[in-house]
Amino acid sequence: MKRFWIMGMALLLIACADQTENEQSDAVEKEDEEVELEVDEGEEGDSHLSKQDDEIEGTDPEDEMTNEEEEIEQVYEINTANWAVEPIEGEDVEEQVVLLTIDDAPHTYGVEMAHILADLDVPAIFFVNGHFINDEEGEQELKEIHELGFEIGNHTMSHPNLSEITEEEQMEEIVKLNERIEEIIGERPRFFRAPFGENTDFSNQVVATEQMTRMNWTYGYDWVADYQNAESLADIMVNAPELNNGANLLMHDREWTKDALEEIVAGLRDKGYQFVDPEQIK
User: Fold this and answer.
1) 200-221 burial, b for 16+ CB within 10 Å, e for fewer?
2) What is 76-280's CATH superfamily?
3) Which residue of 4, 23, 198, 250 is most buried, as measured by CB atoms within 10 A?
């Protein structure tokens, strides 16, 4: 009887041990499954990051460059003896060119003139007066001209004859406008044109300090009474005796000039002239 009792206790202990072992084994397997699941999830996360990395690594730098404007080489300069645009010495570039410039902008027709030239794919410099951009409307017009891709030049704050005002006033007329233009479009002008073409020794110093290129013009006619209509103005601008390689053409923000623009451009092109991009001028 005692022997049977001992054998029963032994079998009970063995059964309990097996159960405990099985429970421990199940727990280990469960932990292994959880670990494996975490690893799988980690691998998926790494895979997601790898995909992003692949996308980044797969980006072609040349593709990004296509979205950026290419730097334009400056191959022309202004001849201050006659104010013509000429190739820089040693540069092999087109010589039969003209430069279009619009003064006293943006007064009344400047924005419309900019759109006409943009549609014709013709570059130009718009020389700005400060008193035309002293309100919100003027600011927006200047922004629009600039956003169309046109160079913005300095034509002084209030269009005085620089030879008739003090040096302090000359400084203010030039520098204050540079600051105002930069405030509106984020860029300081690279070109300066004095009202009436009247530069002074002092204004030349200011222009040099401001790192601007000084220019006047080769010819212009739209302020002359006989040419204050589109037909006669277009004719003289295309057939003027002063027209030659590098001619610096002066026009203004005026209705008859606006109306003559398309014919002027067509006539110059018919004569074989190309239009200089101001960004090409040093």
Assistant:
1) bebbeebbeebebbbbbbbbbb
2) Glycoside hydrolase/deacetylase (3.20.20.370)
3) 250
